[in-house]
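Response to reviewer comment R2.3. The reviewers asked that we include at least one raw input/output pair. We reproduce the pair for DNA-3-methyladenine glycosylase I here without editing.
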Amino acid sequence: MGSNTEKQNNKSRCSWADSAPDFPHYHDTEWGFPVADDQRLFEKLCLETFQSGLSWRTILTKRENFRLAFHNFDFNQVALFGDKEVKNLLENKGIVRNKRKILAVINNAKRAQEMVEKEGSLAAFIWRYEPDESTLPPPQTQTTSKESIALSKDLKKLGWQFVGPTTLYAFMQSMGIINDHAENCFLRKEIDQARKTFKRPSKNK
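Raw output as returned:
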């Protein structure tokens, strides 16, 4: 994602936000706002999995198709997918028909169930990897971090797939565990405020 900003509707946004028609709304209403809902976190992680090697625009334009195909990313339902569902997904022209990624999402749904059972929620586990803000480099100057590397390593140990450090850093940007909006982006202060009032999830079991 670019680190500069561009003007649109008298607002300065991160430069990437004006590079495609679908991006401004996604940037203004979702990207970087802190998330604690497990189903939304699972969706974001799955979409980043499908994005690997592709453009984010490709994924965003197919997002509603993905939601329909994967039961709104309810991991309890996705975990039940078998050969029939995989076959149907591979025939679904509305999504990215990559068998390895599809199987990874199904596998990760099962791992998500295990994590909820052990940790109470996905959010409780993931938010442990929130970095110290004082140690962060300038926004949008890196594609991995020590936290995304650590999260990647720990998820892989737990059997998760397609969770490399770059994929997880993009996930962290999206779900607000860091504020990576450009310094002069109009949303940066709003995200900072949202993060200040956001209640960090904790293990509830």
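The mean pLDDT is 94. Strands lie at 5-8, 11-14. Further pairs are available on request from the corresponding author.
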